[in-house]
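Worked example 2:
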Amino acid sequence: MALIDAQKFYRDLEEGRLSPLYFIFGEEPYLLQQSMERFKHVLLDPNTQDFNFNSYYAGDADVAHVRDAVELLPMMAPRRLVILREAQELNDKEWAELEPLLQTPVDSTVFVVMASRVDKRKRPMRLLMDKAQAVEFKKPYENQIPSWIRYIAGSLALEMSDEAVHLLHKLVGHHLTEIEAELKKLGDYVGEGRRRIEVQDVAAAVSRTKEENVFDFARAVGENNRVKALEQLVRLLDQGQNEIGIIALVARHVRVLMTIKKGLDEGLYGAKLAHFAQVPPYFLDQYLEQARLWTARKLEQTLVVLAETDRALKSSPLSSHIWLENMILKTCSGGLATVPAEPAFRR
């Protein structure tokens, strides 16, 4: 079977065109969770769900129990549903035990294999791609996040002003699970009587820890404060930000500062400057304060260093923290230079 797109996958589910074997994978936990909920909604009757549904995490499951659950006949229902999550955690022996179910799926069960990380070179993954209805849920692009915020808000019976959407995106970032959690918090904050979210609600109710640390990190770099930048880097990593994500956040931050400086050069101030830079007016003063610490040339050179660090993180066998620390050394110095070649670290 071929890889199918998410729209066809959901359409087939809703119209009852079911396969006995699915392979659902991708790095966005929210979308994986949503697909699982959709399977449960379509396939399970609340009155018989306890008899016809099993969910396992691969790292904790006894594969023999998984296999038995898949092969068990449904009770008072046309099909059973069995979900195996984080399948990348299975070892070769466990995959071998499951292989008969992949080669010859059980028609009376919908067996859903889910994975957050996939190495398509490995035989079990190739077998799933060949035998199952395979659906990949990719992380949305940055420019798609506002639409996702509105979609998730709508699913929670919430409306949002454009400015509120922009501020939530700015504060929370692009992780849909975190966006959903913050929207649920906002729903509780405004209460049942008012379901429209305004920018002041987001400013009051949404945690700004990550945003404040990115501001602190960028400011430390701009002040050439090497010690403070290293301290802020540790805090970002402790929050669970991955290394490539940190580079992306700081690069976005630097680009905003470049836009602020350009707007100032064109004589823009206040709301017009905030609109030009596409930042909430709530944050404009903080951006202005930081932009004054940079020259346009230093901002441009910093973006070069960030781009080179991003490439190194994605391709180098060296520990990621080495590249991040090296990036700080190159940006928090009297003059910026490019990231040194790998051999310099191998001596």
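The two ends are 49 Å apart (CA to CA). The mean pLDDT is 85.
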